Amino acid sequence: MDRPTSYDNLIRPIEDKMLATVWRVLRSTQDAEDTLQDVLTTVWQKWSKIERHPNPRAFILKICANAAIDQLRKQIRLKNRESVSELSHLLPSPHIPPQDEAIGQETLKEIMGAVAQLSENQATAFVMRFVQVEPYENIAMALECEEATARKHVARGKKKLAEILSHLNPNFTEI
After folding, report:
1. I want to staple 149 with a disulfide (CB 3.0 to 4.6 A). Which of 139, 144, 145, 172 is the partner?
2. 3-state secondary structure of 170
3. How far apart are CA 26 and CA 87, in angstroms?
4. Structural domain range at position 146
5. What's the pLDDT tens digit per position in 50-88?
6. In the UniProt record, does the keyword Acetylation occur (predicted)?
7. Alpha carbon distance 141, 74 (integer Å)
């Protein structure tokens, strides 16, 4: 298959979803665009594997989720080393009071930090399920596992996130 033609048929239709996936994890336009460039490089390098995959779209979205989570982990490591106060930049909303906006940013930082603490499969499954709103079938194909295993990764990720984030709400039992 010719790569440029395949790119037009496979990548171009989901480019916006790829960028949105990365942005939802990183919450920074610049970081999302940079990470998407890394994703496209990875896609190019793994093109023959992507073409053979039973669901190339799901595999590409898995690459996006993994790249975004990896970038988030890098940012957390950098923050710990350099004591950087901010992990991501959110655009202020004119409908949210400034104090609520600040609370929302801090909560989002904690949530994304918690996602970064999950295992790779749990983090990927969680992001694909709750950020990308992918069905379990696509998650299973992307993770190259059975659908029941994909469900287990999501459930274990949710359970661990609930434990990590329990301080946000003591009555917090379900994400």
Report:
1. 145
2. coil
3. 8
4. 3-168
5. 989 999 999 999 999 999 999 998 887 777 555 433 333
6. no
7. 27
Q: Can you state the angle between helices 15-26 and 120-130, rounded to 10 degrees?
A: 120
Burial class (CB in 10 A: 0-12, 13-18, 19+), 130: middle
| Residue 107 within a domain | yes
| Residue 90 pLDDT greater than 80, yes or no | no
173 within a domain of the structure (yes/no): no
125 part of a folded domain: yes
Is residue 175 domain-resident?
no
Residues whose CB is less than 8 angstroms from the CB of residue 158 and which lie 6 or more positions away in sequence, other chains included: 126, 174, 175
95 Cα distance to chain centroid: 26
| % of the chain with per-residue pLDDT over 70 | 79
pLDDT in tens, 92-128: 445 556 556 556 677 778 888 888 899 999 999 998 8
Query: What whole-number distance in Å separates Cα of residue 142 and Cα of residue 47?
Result: 15
Q: What is the C-alpha separation between 104 and 36, in angstroms, rounded?
A: 25
Q: What tokens appear for 107 in the block?
A: 């909560």
For the chain, what is the domain count?
A: 1
| CA distance linking residue 18 with residue 10, whole number of Å | 12
